[in-house]
């Protein structure tokens, strides 16, 4: 009887699986056991062909060769990871291997990594699917005891394949078309361009905004104060300062009365559990983490620490079969600093698990992100990992707490026929807010909270001891932060006016929880947006791009429809052929629209990868290590390959080592290209600022890896 080959997505995951399966013997790129052999990818091993591989005519970028729509889209091994691909291919087709198990990440991209590798290796053997939401030994064992047929995930693969091919067709054709028309490198994408449009449109609102002065009048009594409001409109703004002055003078020293006292009990139910997008939003608000940083940290907590469940999820619910595990997890969290919170839950013999926690209909591929049922060792975590883990634990615990209850008191006083509003808040029961009472930001955002109010009675007389005029200005809309942009990407339907379409787009945002962070980083990398503190701002290049592309290419509506389509393919509700036909029609439309060049829009060429036409000879820093054909040149932000038009992606960003106190200049780039590894390079430790000696190593793509000596 032959062995079973298990293919994971990463070496670290492969080692964890091998440990559970008892595969101890080291092989070439694999671990061998009595029944199983475990090998691994290193992310994507296979990619789509470049245009010139279909036909050499596409090697040179020319408008008359567009659109490029191959009849059948082909795949090939990625050159930089071909060694590991060859190992997996050999194992897949080995006569001693009877069948395979796909153990890549349980999601759309994980499925694509395995299927592309399987197809490129020309393997015909049967395969099964491991589908787990936690990397603990127990979860891996449970997963292998419930292995599923690979065919059950065919629709997920068709969705992933359609996403890959659609991005290639739209990105390759649109980028070539607009780059050629405007003579500057312009990256255009199916998801990134409408995401950029959201940021650009907000910036236009800010730029067009004209602030207006207004005033508020405050009446001060012996032990409380109130703000004037118009009884008919409920508006407190006074747009004419003269009117505000007259009102303040009119009420000063006068006696009024309390005309109404309203006490309204309110409650806030606990928030839902985290999905990835909500976790990224919270970590951006509370800690200033970028979406990518939060994803990296929670991925580490999942893979390396095994302390949280699968993070790349869009669900905020758990399933019924998890009830036993939930109770076990709560027990494992009975450690400091969570003991007092867990103790409150454990007092109740029966946990309350309503529809806001357990709902099978809202759990698709994966459930919400929660702690795993292993006893956590907080001392092993980095400072930032601890922040993310703490957020996940508190959210998990708080959903089992009672509601946060309080009373809002509204007092209206009348003075000289003018009305003034006073608001106060009395907390009745902290409930789930017990876990967040130290969170100052939550308190600052609670606009209803004010000083404690005196006990007053209706018709009680009050005297105005002082009056105050507050000068204010209307505020422009806020720039997007990563937190608010993630919300906008998730809810693409809110930018659509058509009500029927808005409803359809509820499940179709821009990108997926797993890809949104990378989209934001990509927009920064290509120079379309930049970070300023926590805010994201479009650059001049980004603003101009949105001006020249057609509405359909920048519209969240279009991409939202596509994302919904991909979801429908994964659910078996739509055929991938139908989806791809719509993409091909769309690509032809893009090329037609690109012909209509807006001559009033001129891009600065200094950020382009086009060599300067005014220079007779541009300085070359060496041969490109990636394509082996081109030469490495320089622009203001990076070193790049002269064959970039032919698809070479070699790029060394000059500021990529800024955090290490190292600037990649001409001399350093020359040395790295020549020697590939440099020792004894002085820099600083990113966190402490202490001087440190590093080893720098350049990979074939131009990225520089830093290692402490």
From TrEMBL:
Highest taxon of the lineage: Bacteria
Enzyme class: isomerase
Keywords: DNA-binding, Isomerase, Magnesium, Metal-binding, Topoisomerase
Pfam families documented for this protein: Topoisom_bac, Toprim
Domain (Topo IA-type catalytic) ranges: 153-591
Gene Ontology cellular component annotations, sorted alphabetically: cytoplasmic replication fork
Enzyme Commission identifier(s): 5.6.2.1
One Gene Ontology molecular-function label: DNA topoisomerase type I (single strand cut, ATP-independent) activity
Catalytic activity: ATP-independent breakage of single-stranded DNA, followed by passage and rejoining
One GO term of the biological process aspect: DNA recombination
Toprim domain mapped to chain residues: 3-136
Recorded family membership: Belongs to the type IA topoisomerase family.
Entry protein name: DNA topoisomerase
Organism: Clostridium felsineum
Source organism phylogeny: Bacteria, Bacillati, Bacillota, Clostridia, Eubacteriales
């Amino acid at each position: 009887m032959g062995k079973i080959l298990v293919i994971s997505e990463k070496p670290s995951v492969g080692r964890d699986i091998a440990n559970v399966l008892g595969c101890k013997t080291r092989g070439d790129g694999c671990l061998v056991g009595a029944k199983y052999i475990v090998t691994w990818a290193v992310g994507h091993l296979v990619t789509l062909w470049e245009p010139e591989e279909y036909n050499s005519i596409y090697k040179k970028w020319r408008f008359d060769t567009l659109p490029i729509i191959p009849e059948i889209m082909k795949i090939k091994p990625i050159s930089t990871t071909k060694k590991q691909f060859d190992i997996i291919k050999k194992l897949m087709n080995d006569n001693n291997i009877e069948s395979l198990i796909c153990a890549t990440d349980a999601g759309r991209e994980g499925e694509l990594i395995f299927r592309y590798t399987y197809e490129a290796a020309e393997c015909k053997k049967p395969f099964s699917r491991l589908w787990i939401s936690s990397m603990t030994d127990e979860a891996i064992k449970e997963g292998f005891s419930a292995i599923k047929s690979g065919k059950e995930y065919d629709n997920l693969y068709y969705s992933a394949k359609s996403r890959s091919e659609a991005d290639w067709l739209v990105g390759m054709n649109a980028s070539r078309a607009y780059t050629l028309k405007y003579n500057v490198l312009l990256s255009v994408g199916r998801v990134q361009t409408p995401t950029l449009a959201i940021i650009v449109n907000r910036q236009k609102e800010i730029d067009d905004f004209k602030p207006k002065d207004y005033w508020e009048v405050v009446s001060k009594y012996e032990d409380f104060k109130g703000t004037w409001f118009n009884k008919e409109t409920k508006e407190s703004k006074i747009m004419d300062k003269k009117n505000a002055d007259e009102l303040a003078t009119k009420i000063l020293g006068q006696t009024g009365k309390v005309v109404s006292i309203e006490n309204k009990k309110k409650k806030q139910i606990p928030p839902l559990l985290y999905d990835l997008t909500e976790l990224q939003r919270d970590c951006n608000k509370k800690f200033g983490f970028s979406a990518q940083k939060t994803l990296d940290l929670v991925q580490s907590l999942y893979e390396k620490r095994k302390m949280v469940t699968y993070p790349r999820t869009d669900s905020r619910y758990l399933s019924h079969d998890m009830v036993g595990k939930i109770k076990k997890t709560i027990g494992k969290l009975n450690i400091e600093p969570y003991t007092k919170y867990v103790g409150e839950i454990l007092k109740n013999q029966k946990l309350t698990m309503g529809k806001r926690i357990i709902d099978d209909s809202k759990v698709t591929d994966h459930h919400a992100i929660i702690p795993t049922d292993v006893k956590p060792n907080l001392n092993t975590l980095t400072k930032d990992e601890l922040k993310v883990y703490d957020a996940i634990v508190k959210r998990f615990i708080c959903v089992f707490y009672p509601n946060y209850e309080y009373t809002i008191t509204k007092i209206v006083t009348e003075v000289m026929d003018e009305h003034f509003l006073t608001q106060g808040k009395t907390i009745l029961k902290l409930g789930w807010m017990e876990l967040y009472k130290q969170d100052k930001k939550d308190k600052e955002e609670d606009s209803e909270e004010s000083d404690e109010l005196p006990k007053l009675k209706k018709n009680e007389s009050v005297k105005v001891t002082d009056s105050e005029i507050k000068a204010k200005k209307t505020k422009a809309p806020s720039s997007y932060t990563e937190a608010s942009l993630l919300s906008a990407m998730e809810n693409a339907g809110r930018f659509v006016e058509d009500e029927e379409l808005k409803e359809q787009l509820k499940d179709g945002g821009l990108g997926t929880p797993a890809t949104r962070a990378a989209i934001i980083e990509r927009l920064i990398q290509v120079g379309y947006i930049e970070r300023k503190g926590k805010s994201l701002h479009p650059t001049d290049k980004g603003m101009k791009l949105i001006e020249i592309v057609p509405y359909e290419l920048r519209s969240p509506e279009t991409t939202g429809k596509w994302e919904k389509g991909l979801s429908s393919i994964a659910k078996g509700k739509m055929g991938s052929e139908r989806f791809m036909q719509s993409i091909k029609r769309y690509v032809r439309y893009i090329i037609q629209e690109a012909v209509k060049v807006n001559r009033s829009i001129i891009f600065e060429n200094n950020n382009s990868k086009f060599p300067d036409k005014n220079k007779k000879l541009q300085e070359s820093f060496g041969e490109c290590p990636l394509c082996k054909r081109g030469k490495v040149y320089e622009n203001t932000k990076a070193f790049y390959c002269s064959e970039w038009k032919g698809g070479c992606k070699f790029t060394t960003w000059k500021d990529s080592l800024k955090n290490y106190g190292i600037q990649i200049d001409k001399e350093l780039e020359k040395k790295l290209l020549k020697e590939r590894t440099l020792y004894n390079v002085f820099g600083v430790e990113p966190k402490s600022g202490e001087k440190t000696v590093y080893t720098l190593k350049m990979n074939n793509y131009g990225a520089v890896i830093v290692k402490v000596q």
